[in-house]
Design the sequence.
């Protein structure tokens, strides 16, 4: 939750931020609810629609800000780790090199749709940005048209039209996880069948991209001893105002004026990251970007608005003049950033937009087809003129050495009693590389569970005799489901053993020129003989001479027929591997996790549902 003023959809955001808080914050919560009710009542007295709109927007934004502050202050400090938001920047010598990689590594995949009248196009971006604002540089990507195999060019349109009788290119409405996807829609004619093979297929996608790269990125490493101190590097400066358990307050500035290209819409130059005593990065839980002085100024403006009977151009000019004069006095920017866990060290990075490089490029990208399974014997090349590293691989691969104690310690138990006929106890753990290699040959063995009542002191009492259909244990999903309507007595405890699964993983490292039989590296392609290295038992990771893991673009399984069995697989990488790591599951063991769970209580009336 990053909150800034002014906001444009305060009403919607207010509803999203409603939530519980700790008892110590109840008075603030009540006060806020009263303030919200008073504000909504005051809106009823405003008759002028324009005035009502601006009062609603600014007043709603101030309430949203206060609610966000309350939510962030009252959130329990539970450690949750994230990734290094700047990891990708550390692989490229300049911001411009990163821009070039972003643009030159972009390609387009042809994806099959379940409908004969649709063909999906997926732009594949080479870089992953784990930051609240995704790609930190100002950028714009516009698709313009698609060229079909019959040379016809179809212009891009922002929405699919039901009345357009022709072929259309528009954003995909079916894939919310990939908002950049596009769909080529062929006309549907009632009662007339269509052979997709005879339809003109997309062969290239046209568009244009613009990216603005900052002059540089500079990071300040701060600790508790830096509180109150201003650190400066050339035109950039940072002051650590406060460093508390899970949040920090920072002021920052750039003494050089912004470049003309970004003067009208200055981009956010700040990236704040925190580590705990383990050295791992903490995930962010939110940020506030308004100082007390700024909030007081907006509150004053709101009060002036509420005193008006009607909106006028003269009043609007007065507000704008006041705001310009106030902003002119604000020479430094502010941020209060919250993290999920106790902070040990802080990394404050600033993007210097006092000088920029603007890259504009017209795109004409071939549409490539790489089905996950194919019966083609020929290996299709996929070479891109960029090198991209997988910064999450090293952390992910720690799961290869996961042991029984680590697995047990990672278990979290949750309950659900909303439906008394299907109450649940769930045993979850963070997904790891070990889970990926578990395969399908599970032998969970026994999964005993006994339900108990409690005595007058709330301690565990006698066992409850139950028919077999009263509960069900699902070891593969790590869940116990029970029907409270079949219990003669109210259960208070569940005691038993839940099977967990642990793979034994063998790791080997090879030079690219000394690979074992069944593995071959050809440029950026790793070819795997699936008879010697079956997919369910093996995983492969590649490095280049830098010692970093290369990011895999995609993989294709070449099968003897549509149903398999697999002949060989091809893994494509952004870059040329010089070393290969193989990971083989050599054994699968069952770990018994003993538990005693105090059951959540169901309201008596719910048992009759």
Sequence:
């Amino acid at each position: 939750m990053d909150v800034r003023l002014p906001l444009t959809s305060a009403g919607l955001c207010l509803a999203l931020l409603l939530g519980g808080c700790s008892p110590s914050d109840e008075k603030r919560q009540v006060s806020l609810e009263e303030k919200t009710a008073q504000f909504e009542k005051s809106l009823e007295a405003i008759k002028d629609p324009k005035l009502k709109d601006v009062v609603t927007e600014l007043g709603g934004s101030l309430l949203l800000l206060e609610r966000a502050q309350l939510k962030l202050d009252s959130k329990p400090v539970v450690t949750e780790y994230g990734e290094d938001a700047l990891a990708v920047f550390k692989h490229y010598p300049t911001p411009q090199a990163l821009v070039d990689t972003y643009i030159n590594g972009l390609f387009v995949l042809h994806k099959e749709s379940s409908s004969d009248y649709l063909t999906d196009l997926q732009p594949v971006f080479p870089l992953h940005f784990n930051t609240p604002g995704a790609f930190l540089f100002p950028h714009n990507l516009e698709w313009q048209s698609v060229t079909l195999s019959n040379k016809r060019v179809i212009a891009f349109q922002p929405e699919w039209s039901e009345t357009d009788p022709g072929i259309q290119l528009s954003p995909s409405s079916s894939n919310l996880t990939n908002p950049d996807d596009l769909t080529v829609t062929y006309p549907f004619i009632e009662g007339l069948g269509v052979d997709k093979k005879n339809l003109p297929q997309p062969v290239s996608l046209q568009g244009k991209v613009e990216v603005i790269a900052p002059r540089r990125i500079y990071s300040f490493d701060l600790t508790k001893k830096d509180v109150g101190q201003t650190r400066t590097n050339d035109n950039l400066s940072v002051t650590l105002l406060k460093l508390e358990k899970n949040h920090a307050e920072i002021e920052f500035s750039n003494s050089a004026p912004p470049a003309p290209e970004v003067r009208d819409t200055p981009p956010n130059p700040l990236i704040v990251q925190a580590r705990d005593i383990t050295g791992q990065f903490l995930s962010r839980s939110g940020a506030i970007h308004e100082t007390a002085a700024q909030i007081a100024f907006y509150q004053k403006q709101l009060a002036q608005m509420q005193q008006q009977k009607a909106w006028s151009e003269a009043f609007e000019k007065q507000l704008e003049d006041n705001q310009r004069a106030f902003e002119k006095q604000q020479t430094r920017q502010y941020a209060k950033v919250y993290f999920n866990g106790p902070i040990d060290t802080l990394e404050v990075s600033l993007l210097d937009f006092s000088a920029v490089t603007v890259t504009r490029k017209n795109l004409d990208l071939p549409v490539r087809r790489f089905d996950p399974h194919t019966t083609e014997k020929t290996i299709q090349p996929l070479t891109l003129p960029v090198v991209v590293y997988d910064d999450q691989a090293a952390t992910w691969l720690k799961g290869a050495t996961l042991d029984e104690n680590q697995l047990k310690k990672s278990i979290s138990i949750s309950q659900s009693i909303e439906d008394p006929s299907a109450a649940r106890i769930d045993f979850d753990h963070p997904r790891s590389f070990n889970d990926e290699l578990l395969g399908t040959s599970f032998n969970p063995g026994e999964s005993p569970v006994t339900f108990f009542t409690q005595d007058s002191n709330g301690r565990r009492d006698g066992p409850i005799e139950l028919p077999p259909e009263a509960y069900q244990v699902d070891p593969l999903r790590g869940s116990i489901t029970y029907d409270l309507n079949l219990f003669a007595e109210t259960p208070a405890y569940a005691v038993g053993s839940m099977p967990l699964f642990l793979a034994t993983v063998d790791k080997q490292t090879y030079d690219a020129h000394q690979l074992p039989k069944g593995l071959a590296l050809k440029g950026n392609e790793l070819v795997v003989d699936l008879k010697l290295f079956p997919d369910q038992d093996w995983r492969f990771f590649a490095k280049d001479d830098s010692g970093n893991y290369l990011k895999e673009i995609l993989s294709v399984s070449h099968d003897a027929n549509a149903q398999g069995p697999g002949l060989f697989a091809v893994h494509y990488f952004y870059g040329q591997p010089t070393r290969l790591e193989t990971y083989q599951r050599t054994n699968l063991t069952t770990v018994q996790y003993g538990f005693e769970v105090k059951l959540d209580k169901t309201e008596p009336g719910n048992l009759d549902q």
The chain has nine helices and 29 strands. Residues 6-23, 604-609 have pLDDT under 50 and may be disordered.
